[in-house]
């Protein structure tokens, strides 16, 4: 079991006091007044992971912080690779079960700059220059905005509809033009933005706490929400610190089986590490 567990949620003061009374280590989200999306989890998971990493950055016993959404199930045998103590030397991120190329919008946490399949790279990433110019990853198309790039490249960023929103591509455009982001630009002077990533799980070693916090802060400054942010944040750590990353399989779905037992059961034989979502409410009678 884990020695230290923290419940991080949009708790009011009464709820926080109740948990503390019952010796539950809890973290109160501090952004509830910004807008409704904070409450719905668009930004708080990033903030909570950042705050927890900073809290334990000088710990002599805690070497990594693992974030999991409250409706995720974790296969610790897969996550730990069957090792004890739990390996904490790498970032651990999840990606959907299908291999790269098997799904048009499945390239979570993959560096698309150099993969052989340039068509896939072109569809699932883009660049923004500090002057506001937007291009495809291979710099064959140059336009004034990401919305214009979407007209030039059919199915840009796959089926991920949130990508075109102000809290994704819109925020990325502003971030690329921010002088504080200059240190993260590629050698060609552009900001590379990879595929979105399902962001209900991430583990980060505490030795990266300060750099993770810096990367999160600039995403929050421009209101880039977590599913558009986490892939880029990990990329920033990889490029600046050569931070090693291990990818584990995620079992998820968006159809009628989403959150149900038959979705989970179909994944059990596939060495899946993260199952999401699985709604516990109303399911105890089925298993116990």
Whole-number mean pLDDT: 87
Helix amount, in percent? Answer: 25-40%
Question: How is the largest sheet built, in terms of strand order?
Answer: 3-10-5-11-12-4
Structural class: alpha/beta
Beta fraction of the residues?
Answer: 5-15%
Tell me about this structure:
This protein is α/β, with parallel strands linked by helices and 288 residues long. Helix content is 32%, strand content 15%. The chain has 11 helices and 12 strands. It has helices at 13-21, 36-39, 44-55, 76-79, 118-123, 146-152, 166-176, 209-221, 226-241, 261-267, 284-287, and strands spanning 7-9, 26-28, 64-68, 73-74, 91-96, 126-128, 134-135, 142-143, 191-193, 201-205, 245-251, 274-275. A 6-stranded mixed sheet has the order 3-10-5-11-12-4. Residues 99-104 have low confidence and may be disordered.
Set down the secondary structure blueprint:
Elements (H helix, E strand, L loop, with lengths): L6 E3 L3 H9 L4 E3 L7 H4 L4 H12 L8 E5 L4 E2 L1 H4 L11 E6 L21 H6 L2 E3 L5 E2 L6 E2 L2 H7 L13 H11 L14 E3 L7 E5 L3 H13 L4 H16 L3 E7 L9 H7 L6 E2 L8 H4 L1
Parallel strand pairs: 1-2, 5-11, 11-12
Antiparallel strand pairs: 3-10, 4-12, 5-10, 6-7, 6-9, 7-8
Helix pairs in contact: 3-8, 8-9
In short:
The protein is of the alpha/beta class and 288 residues long. It has helices at 13-21, 36-39, 44-55, 76-79, 118-123, 146-152, 166-176, 209-221, 226-241, 261-267, 284-287, and strands spanning 7-9, 26-28, 64-68, 73-74, 91-96, 126-128, 134-135, 142-143, 191-193, 201-205, 245-251, 274-275.
């Amino acid at each position: 079991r884990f020695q230290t567990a923290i419940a991080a949620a949009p708790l009011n003061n009464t709820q926080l006091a109740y948990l503390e009374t019952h010796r539950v280590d809890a973290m109160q989200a501090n952004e509830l007044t910004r807008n409704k999306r904070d409450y719905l989890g668009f930004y708080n998971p990033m903030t909570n992971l950042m705050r927890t990493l900073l809290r334990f950055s000088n710990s002599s016993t805690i070497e990594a912080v693992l974030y999991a959404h409250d409706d995720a199930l974790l296969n610790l045998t897969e996550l730990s690779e069957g090792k004890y103590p739990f390996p904490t030397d790498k970032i651990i991120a999840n990606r959907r079960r299908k291999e790269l190329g098997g799904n048009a919008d499945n390239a979570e946490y993959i560096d698309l700059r150099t993969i052989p399949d340039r068509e896939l790279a072109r569809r699932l990433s883009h660049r923004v220059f500090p002057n506001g110019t937007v291009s495809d990853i291979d710099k064959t198309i140059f336009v004034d905005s990401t919305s214009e790039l979407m007209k030039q490249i059919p199915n840009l960023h796959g089926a991920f509809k949130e990508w075109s929103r102000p809290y994704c591509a819109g925020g990325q455009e502003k971030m690329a033009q921010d002088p504080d982001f200059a240190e993260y630009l590629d050698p060609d002077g552009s900001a590379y933005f990879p595929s979105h990533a399902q962001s209900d799980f991430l583990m980060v070693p505490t030795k990266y706490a300060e750099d993770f916090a810096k990367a999160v802060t600039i995403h929050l400054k421009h209101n880039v929400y977590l599913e558009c942010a986490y892939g880029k944040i990990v990329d920033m750590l990889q490029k600046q610190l050569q931070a090693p990353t291990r990818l584990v399989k995620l079992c998820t779905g968006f159809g009628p089986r989403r959150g149900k037992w038959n979705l989970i059961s179909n994944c059990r034989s596939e060495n899946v590490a993260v199952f999401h979502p699985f709604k516990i409410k109303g399911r105890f009678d089925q298993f116990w």
